[in-house]
Design goal:
This protein has 575 residues and is α+β, with helices and mostly antiparallel strands. The chain is 36% helix and 15% strand. It has 20 helices and 19 strands. It has a seven-stranded antiparallel beta sheet. α2 (51-62) packs antiparallel against α3, α12 (289-300) crosses α14 and α12 runs parallel beside α18 (480-492). The model is unreliable at 1-33 and 373-382 (pLDDT under 50).
Amino acid sequence: MLTFNRGLIIFFLFFLISNCQQQQMEDTTSVESGKNEGVLAKNGMVVTAHPLASQVGLAILKKGGNAFDAAIAVQYALAVVLPKAGNIGGGGFMVYRTKDGENGALDFREKAPLKGDRDMYLDKKGEPIKNLSLKGHLAAGVPGTVAGMDAAFQKFASLPFSEIIQPSIDLAQNGFELTEYEADLLNRFQEDFKAINLHTPYLVREEEYQEGDSIYHTDLAKTLERIRDNGKDGFYKGETADLIVKEMKAGKGIISLEDLASYEAKWRKPIIVNYRGHKVISMPPSSSGGLVLGQLLKGSEYFDFPSFGVNTTKSIHVMTELQRRAYADRAEHMGDMDFYEVPIDMLLEDSYIKNRISDITMDSATSSQVIKSGKVNTIESFQTTHFSIVDKEGNAVAITTTLNSYFGCKVMVDGAGFFLNNEMDDFSIKPGVPNQFGLVGAEANAIAPGKRMLSAMTPTIIEKEGKLFMVVGTPGGSTIITNVYQVILNVIDHGLTMQEAVDAKKMHSQWLPDRIIAEKGCLDSLTIDALQHLGHEIKEINTIGRIEAILVKEDGTYEGAADKTRSGDAMALGY
């Protein structure tokens, strides 16, 4: 019979607890007393929408990888653990800043198939066919994620690609436990998975998913292995490409082998503006994010936001007025620069901005009908994901990636284990007709073969006095740009910590519909009354955005702010 020394047991328990505490201190510095700050760390920070993806990214940094290695690893990890938005069947955008101050942007947005045409979602009377651009095979654009990650790897990676992608393969093969949030989402979309797919996706099951259930993505693991072994050709050619085209043919989709083989990500010059002494680096078209953000910030310099305060009558009123004008310009002037000459310089000219906001008054709202004619009745927010990463050298990466709606067009490629996007809805399928986010467009964003659809994704990096200051982005459809805008104002103008800026309740306006959308708790009753007296219509909704951001403090410490106040499983990890 074994006997135990009570003192020895206490010693070992103390040793284990101390060891765990020491390890935690090595990975993340604790929050400073008295401040609502996020995770603090000296050597690197990863902020993503899922704990497992954050762990994968941090592990890459700790083994000596740079921020780009970690970003690629996180992107593939999210394709496994966050199938509603993380993807290899969609696309996105990357903004980066190297430790030496070099900056740039990578466009891996999806493209219209070569067989696409401007009227492909209209009936014989020229009216949009309900849900045709949202659900099913015809809604999918040519995926860009794998090509984007390959381009980033070729230019910036320091580790072998096999080491970067292997953690995602392991997650897919060996399985992982579902969070409550992800289990609920899988349950919510079971009927769509059954109705839209011609086969039965392996995620369909009779009993409901529960938190803690183990899930395995064996087909996806094989797809990722082909990418590991063959680079982007493991996706755009060979077996995976054949599976995509087979799926397309079965469901009357139009993505072809030629579409896949010819897809390329594109390096672009970022949009850069200055805001109160800060250099703001953001995404150019085919995303509208950087341009609209630039207009909002340049317009904001004409107003005393620091004295207005956070979510006051004055700040909400002026932000709304600025947003209406910028989103009207978005609808008229913005599209894929490879197909349409977007007047970037004109839209950001000081004289243009000053004239554009000259009719803003503090005593009344401007009707959107005066700014631009048109009519939209709905606005909704759908699913994208963002992550922010900084390494110990100061390299910074902001990536926003998406399938558009939750699980995209709901089509899972049979035998390949991933969902396809429904990004075709982001085109202007008919001038003046809104997409699912209530955004309208014109000729600049009309469908054309091989064209990238306009986006609102806004991955952004900010410098202060020539040094890295902030990395930020968010999901949220049309609200992405205004969320990023408010976070920037919250930090620079209102002096909030990164976590406070992320947690603060948000508002949104976008020209049409002609109203303010506000998160519940954003506006008190007196502010609502005052805004209504100015002529604003207010609609409250539960949630706007889900920001993942990093701030560099004055002493060089990174503050990682994961959005914990809204639904999801976001996590910031540093070391």
